[in-house]
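Incident log, support desk, overnight shift.

02:14 A customer reports that sequence design results differ from what the structure should imply. Their input is reproduced verbatim below. On-call engineer (initials T.W.) acknowledged and began investigating.
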C-alpha cells in the first residue's frame, strides 16, 4: 500500500511521513474481524486538530492525525456482513462498538468500550483510544457494519464528494448543536464562531427553519464569507455589547437558541483568551427557558492555558445566570451516526450546499502542513485533503 500520513511532530508542527500500512488489528493488537481497510478518498482538517497542533492538549509527537474520513473499502474482515470491497462510505469520527449501553441508546460519541481511558473513541485524537488517524492514504475502521454509512450510488457520491466529505464530522456537529439548542421554525439564532463548525451550525439552523441566523466572530474574512452565503454577521470587534448588537438586528436583545462553535480557546474583546466568555455571553443573550448547544470543545487538561484554574478545565462561568433563566445546556462529542443519513439525503437531493457554505478547499495530502498553517491563520476555508488525487480531477 505504501501508506503516508499527517503526523503531529510537536507544537505548531505537522509533517507528511511514511506510516505503517493499516491492518485489521486494534490499538491493543487484537485481530478485528469486524473491521475494514479504506482507501481514503477525502479527509478534512478540523478545528479540533488545531487544538492539538497548537500544543493545547496532552497530544504527544508521533500521533497520526485525522478523524474526518471518506473512503472506498479495499479489504473486509471475515465478520463484516453488510459491506463489500468497492463500497464508498462516510466514516463518523466517533469510533463506536454498537454493543454497549451508550451505543445501543444512540450515544455513539461516548461509546463505553473503545477507549480504556474514558468514554468515547475517535481516529487520530489524543485521549480517544489510540485509533490511528485517517489523514493518510489508507486507514482501518473497526465495527464497520455499525459505523459506516454507505453512499447509495458511487458516481453520484463522487459528484457530490466536496459536500459529502462534511458528513464525517462538521455537518452532523453543527446540526446536533442546532437541534440541542432547540432550533425550529421561526427561531432567532445566534452562532458564536464563523469557522467551519459555526457555518455548519448556521446552515443547519437554516434548514431547520430558523427565521434569523446571526454568526458572531472577530475574523472579518470569515464574517464576510458568512454574509455572502446568507447569514447575518455580527462583528464582535466593533463592540463588547452583544445584546445591543443583536437588538439592532432583530429588535430585541435576546435569542431563542445559541450555539457555541468556538470552544475553550475563545477570545475576549480585549484580544486575550477568555475560555468562558462564549458560555457566559450565551447565558446572557439566550431567552428565559431557551436552549444552548455547545459543540465547541472544552477540555479537562489544558497545559497551555493562561490562568491556573483553566489548566485543569476549571472555567469561571456565571452558572447561576443560566440556572435563574432555566436554560438548557447540551455539550459533548457529536453522535454522528444519529444524523449522517438524513443529512446525506439532504445533500444528494440538493437541499444543503454545505461545501460552498464552508468554502471547501481541496489540496493534496502533501500540502497538509500548508493547509494547517493557513487554517490556523483564520482563512474562511475548510481544507479537504485529497490523498490519491481523486478529487482534483
Ligand atoms: N463536539 C464535537 O463533536 C465537535 C466536532 C468538531 C469540532 N468541534 C469543536 O468546534 C469548535 C469549532 O471548530 P472549527 O473547526 O470551526 O474551529 P475554528 O478554530 O476554525 O473556528 C473557531 C472560530 O471562533 C472564533 N472565535 C474566537 N473567540 C470567539 C468569541 N469569543 N466569539 C465568537 N467567535 C470567536 C475564531 O475567530 C474562529 O473563527 C472547536 O472547538 C472544535 O474542536 C467539536
Ligand atoms: Zn473534526
Ligand atoms: Zn459502544
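02:41 Re-run completed on a clean worker. Output:
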Amino acid at each position: 500500500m505504501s501508506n503516508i500520513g499527517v503526523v503531529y511532530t510537536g507544537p505548531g508542527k505537522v509533517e507528511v511521513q511514511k506510516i505503517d500500512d493499516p491492518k485489521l488489528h486494534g490499538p491493543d493488537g487484537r485481530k478485528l474481524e469486524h473491521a475494514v481497510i479504506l482507501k481514503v478518498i477525502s479527509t478534512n482538517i478540523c478545528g479540533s486538530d488545531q487544538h492539538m497542533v497548537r500544543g493545547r492538549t496532552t497530544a504527544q509527537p508521533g500521533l497520526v492525525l485525522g478523524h474526518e474520513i471518506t473512503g472506498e473499502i479495499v479489504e473486509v474482515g471475515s465478520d463484516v456482513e453488510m459491506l463489500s470491497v468497492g463500497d464508498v462510505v462516510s466514516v463518523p469520527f466517533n469510533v463506536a462498538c454498537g454493543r454497549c449501553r451508550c451505543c445501543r441508546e444512540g450515544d455513539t460519541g461516548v461509546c463505553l468500550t473503545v477507549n480504556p481511558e474514558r468514554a468515547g473513541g475517535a481516529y487520530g485524537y489524543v485521549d480517544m483510544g489510540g485509533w490511528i488517524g485517517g489523514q493518510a492514504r489508507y486507514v482501518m475502521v473497526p465495527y464497520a457494519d455499525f459505523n459506516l454509512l454507505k453512499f447509495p450510488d458511487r458516481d453520484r457520491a463522487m459528484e457530490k464528494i466536496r459536500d459529502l466529505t462534511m458528513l464525517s464530522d462538521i455537518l452532523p456537529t453543527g446540526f446536533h448543536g442546532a437541534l440541542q439548542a432547540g432550533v425550529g421554525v421561526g427561531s432567532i439564532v445566534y452562532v458564536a464562531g464563523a469557522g467551519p463548525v459555526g457555518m455548519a451550525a448556521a446552515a443547519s439552523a437554516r434548514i431547520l427553519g430558523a427565521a434569523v441566523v446571526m454568526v458572531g466572530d472577530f475574523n472579518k474574512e470569515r464574517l464576510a464569507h458568512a454574509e455572502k452565503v446568507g447569514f447575518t454577521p455580527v462583528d464582535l470587534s466593533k463592540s463588547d455589547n452583544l445584546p445591543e448588537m443583536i437588538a439592532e438586528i432583530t429588535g430585541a436583545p435576546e435569542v431563542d437558541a445559541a450555539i457555541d462553535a468556538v470552544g475553550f480557546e475563545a477570545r475576549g474583546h480585549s484580544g486575550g483568551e477568555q475560555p468562558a466568555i462564549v458560555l457566559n455571553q450565551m447565558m446572557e443573550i439566550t431567552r428565559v427557558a431557551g436552549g444552548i448547544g455547545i459543540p465547541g470543545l472544552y477540555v479537562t487538561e489544558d497545559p497551555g492555558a493562561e490562568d491556573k484554574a483553566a489548566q485543569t478545565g476549571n472555567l469561571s462561568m456565571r452558572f447561576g445566570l443560566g440556572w435563574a433563566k432555566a436554560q438548557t445546556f447540551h455539550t459533548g462529542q457529536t453522535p454522528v451516526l444519529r444524523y449522517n443519513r438524513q443529512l446525506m439525503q439532504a445533500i444528494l437531493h440538493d437541499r444543503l450546499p454545505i461545501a460552498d457554505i464552508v468554502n471547501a478547499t481541496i489540496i493534496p495530502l502533501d500540502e497538509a502542513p500548508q493547509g494547517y498553517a493557513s487554517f490556523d491563520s483564520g482563512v474562511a476555508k475548510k481544507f479537504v485533503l485529497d490523498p490519491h488525487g481523486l478529487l482534483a480531477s
